[in-house]
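Input structure tokens:
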């Protein structure tokens, strides 16, 4: 079974899924991610799914469940790089991905996470005084 690397960057964890996800890999990632959130007291998780062309209902639910678990542990989740075919599939499956914010790319995803932690205006370089 493949393990997906989880990288720490300050208060954030970064996950880039570069392999086709089977159910076992998805569950292992979820377990590893929860462990890393607690270990590092992470405030945000960015999951890059740009390499995924297909997402089935199990993987979709796993993303939603992972975001819900992370929220309970006080970490926001942002999914980036979603392919149009994946978005269509998720909608057709009726998976709303409640609690999962999304962004077009990693840079915008990091901005979303920073704005949550640092407050409005900080992530885009505008400080309120």
């Amino acid at each position: 079974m493949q393990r997906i690397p989880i990288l720490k960057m300050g208060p954030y964890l970064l996950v880039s899924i570069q392999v086709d996800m089977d159910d076992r890999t998805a569950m292992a990632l979820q377990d590893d991610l929860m462990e890393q959130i607690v270990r590092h007291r992470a405030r945000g998780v960015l999951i890059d799914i740009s390499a995924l062309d297909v997402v089935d209902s199990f993987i979709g639910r796993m993303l939603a469940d992972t975001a819900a678990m992370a929220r309970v542990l006080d970490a926001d989740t942002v999914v980036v790089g979603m392919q149009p075919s994946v978005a269509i599939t998720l909608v057709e499956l009726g998976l709303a991905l409640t609690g999962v914010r999304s962004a077009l790319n990693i840079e915008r995803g990091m901005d979303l996470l920073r704005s949550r932690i640092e407050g409005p205006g900080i992530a885009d370089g505008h400080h309120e005084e």
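Residues 7 and 45 are 10 Å apart (CA to CA). The helical segments are 23-40, 57-72, 84-92, 106-118.
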